[in-house]
Amino acid sequence: MKAPAKSSGSSSPAASIPEVDGGHGPPTDPGRKPGDRQGLDLFALLAEYDHEQVSVYYDPSTDYRGIIAIHSTVLGPALGGTRFWHYESDAEALIDSLRLARGMTYKAAVAGLNLGGGKSVIIGDNRTTRREALFRAHGRHVESLKGRYITAEDVGTSTADMEYIKAETNYVTGLIGKSGDPSPVTAYGVYRGIKACARYRYGSDGLSGKHVALQGCGSVGYHLAKLLYAEGASITCTDIDPQRVKRVVEECGAQAVATNDIYDVRADVFAPCALGAVINDTTLSRLRVEIVAGAANNQLAEDRHGDLLEQRQITYAPDYVINGGGLINVNAELHGWAPERARSKAGEIYDTILRVFEIAREEGIPSYRAADRLAEQRIAAIAKVRRNFV
Hints:
2 domains, alpha/beta
């Protein structure tokens, strides 16, 4: 979805937009080489990723270096977590924030939520114990955008960090004692998505007697296994943590295999619920399933792997559609929904997946492209309404 690209200047006089370039940072940063500038074209990146705004903030007192990317606010305020990571360069951090923010726009759109997409990154060592001042600086950065962006927990951050942010702004979710663990809601959405895939593939959404190869037995994988087992599906599972595997085996009657052997399991469904990029040149030819549907993010190593799944006639549930339950859970916190309402909304992923397959069939395109099309249609429709009415 093309959006007019605009950018804010830095939110702090201590940093300017030209500072966001490859490998150049404050002299105190041991991870940077002074004077190593790679010539980042900021505005070209904004145009390429179709973003509305990027805000850069540097606080010398805490050595806070943060970037907030707002991709779209057409549907509502931009929501996206704060990622704390030691990036190799400022350019890498910027590109990561732009890519992740755009993904959040599409995820919220297909989930039917009145939210846009954004993301923030903090550049540094997420193992630091000196967190309060750092995250309060981040909170002030978020507050400076006056509600255009709402943050949450992400890689390298915790609910405790969100509490520090809350001291400076109300535009934060994932607080202690609020929406709680999103895993059950996420798993329920994935479960409903698998049922939709079964209906599309077999004409019935019943999973009794179906065989699911489950990759990842963490929080989401465990709750998904419980739902599948309750409906009578058989499960073969794997995880890097033997204790997680043991729990699924004992409670769900699953069979365990080595981590690399999960791709060779003959099953009806492959459910990746761990790492991303698991559909790649090495694994794709080994799959012996008819459906790929799971909770992992960024399951396709490259877009072309979605094309290859289509060529192999494997039904693929686009990851950001089927795993939208986590975002729905955050939205429930924002609007004070009861847990039952969040679960019901996650259940609507069933109909969304079927709509994606309908678009794919009508237009003769792979399902991952059809998901993008569905998101873009909703964003364009609401943008038109906003242009027509004051």
